[in-house]
Design a protein that fits this description.
heterodimer; A: 151 residues; alpha+beta; Thiol Ester Dehydrase, Chain A; 16% helix; elongated; B: 137 residues; 5-stranded antiparallel beta sheet
Chain lengths: 151, 137
């Protein structure tokens, strides 16, 4: 069982730059056909100041800059061989763009078990704020941990 | 340009199909997304973890769903969206994004629509299911 003492733990703020090359790579890897995500001229024609990040990209930023405090694969001690993604949500307030420096803060909201302890659920909320202090997006991540259960 | 999508309850969004997902797709997505969980990349690791083989990142299907929603509402019109991951997407699967308008309403002076969104794979299994709230204009 993941230690419930992590509920309420807030991570340290992590800063991460949104790299243009990585956005283009993400567009390629996801079969993106909308040129605003990989062609700066197309982005400009659509009224964007540079390449915007796709709607799920905040998750990738969080993967690149994981928390040290309240970290699923860190101090929580979860084995990556045992995880499944349970639920994911995003609320969007302002676009994230190439060149932005995003500050991420993650809070562990809940930890609970199901199926007699065979599965643990960890729920974390993350806020993404840009270099101008604008809240761009929030996400909620629910991960499922498959535990070894004695027969 | 095709006709703008008409948001009315029951209206079906145009399907979006991606895949089949190859091991190469998963390797590229792992690198591009910074998600280096080995279950998606290394079949030896996945087998040792009892998963049989590598399987797709749930977030890859969610990225496809973002493209699917964009067919009817540009990204800046998407206010919030959520999915539950109901089943694993195995390697070699083709991912079909589908959905429909659940209802239309006004909130805080904006015309909004609530969409059902889902992904299914070849076998007909639903892998992701959720909802999106989008501005209609």
């Amino acid at each position: 069982m993941v230690d419930r003492a992590f509920v309420g733990v807030v991570s340290e703020p992590r800063n991460i730059e949104v790299e243009k090359g990585q956005l283009k790579f993400f567009a390629k890897a996801t079969g993106e056909t909308n040129a605003i995500y990989f062609d700066e001229a197309a982005a400009a024609r659509a009224g964007h100041r540079t390449l915007p990040a796709p709607l799920t990209y905040m998750f990738c930023l969080a993967s690149a800059a994981p928390a040290k405090r309240g970290a699923i694969f860190g101090d929580m001690g979860v084995d990556q061989a045992r995880v499944l993604h349970g639920e994911q949500s995003f609320t969007h307030y302002a676009p994230i763009y190439a060149g932005d420096v995003i500050t991420l803060v993650t809070e562990t909201i809940d930890i609970y078990s199901k199926k007699g302890g065979a599965l643990d659920f960890i729920v974390q909320d993350t806020r993404a704020t840009n270099q101008d202090g604008v809240l761009c997006a929030e996400m909620r991540f629910t991960v499922v941990v498959r535990n070894e259960v004695a027969p | 340009m095709s006709e703008p999508f008409s948001f009315r309850p029951g209206a079906v969004l145009p399907e979006l199909v991606r895949g089949p997902i190859t091991r190469g797709t998963l390797a590229l997505y792992a690198g591009a997304s910074n998600d280096h969980v080995m279950l998606h990349i290394d079949s030896d690791f996945a087998k040792a973890a009892g998963m049989g083989d590598v399987f797709a990142h749930g977030m890859l299907s969610m990225a496809y769903l973002a493209q699917f929603i964009a067919q009817v509402a540009p990204a800046q019109n998407v206010q919030s969206w959520q999915v539950r991951f109901l089943a694993i997407t195995p390697v070699h699967a083709t991912v079909r994004c589908s959905g429909e308008v659940l209802d239309v309403y006004e909130a805080e002076g904006r015309a909004l629509a609530r969409l059902r969104i889902r992904t299914t794979i070849d076998s007909g299994v639903t892998t992701l299911e959720g909802e999106a709230i989008v501005a209609r204009s």
